[in-house]
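Worked Example 4.2. Consider the chain below.
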Amino acid sequence: MLRKIAFGLLWLGFITYAFVFAPPDQPDTFELIKNLSTGQWQGINPLVIALFNIMGVFPMIYSAVLFIDGRGQKIPAWLFAIPSFAVGAFAILPYLALRESNKQFPGKKDFFIKLLDSRFTGIALTLGTIVLVGYGLLAGDWGNFVKQWQTSRFIHVMSLDFCVLCLIFPALLGDDLARRQVKNPQLLWLISFIPLFGSLIYLSVRPPLLEAEAVSIKQPIAN
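Applying the procedure from the previous section yields the following structure tokens:
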């Protein structure tokens, strides 16, 4: 119950900060988002380009856990995972507040779950993220980014969204590790706290998901 309250309060606090205390919207925000979305990156700080695209990687990272975790939940995970591609932690936090502990995966893995569970998915996401981070760090203008962070609500909130998504990922690991019957999870726990790359490493090295085996129960025959 305390966990649910904590995530609920964090969600409400994040919403309040984003719409009340963050810097104001800039007139060119819609144009900036459109250009970032369509690949028209001329004149845009590479740090902003990298961050924007990483915010598209994060929902895929979370989907690789949420859709598996959601198989045993009363609330469908897709209601939160799909909107997270647009609003990030604003969609993930309510799921964390509403979900119940779920240490087993019921049924069989379909193609979609197998894809999300595959280490190759984690490795592919990791390689793509390395390219984005390298591009942003090597070509980006930090002075310009800090100025935009101080004056643009879009850049400001997107940066905080990145930090929140880095922070809350370990909250899903306890049950995910249990579903995989990891006997010594301490190292994976520590790795998961590394911002961004910790979650990617976890997806790349975690053991395969264990399917629940159907148990046949024979009823006694009455004489």
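The chain has a mean pLDDT of 92. The CA atoms of residues 109 and 211 lie 7 Å apart. Compare this with Example 4.1 before moving on.
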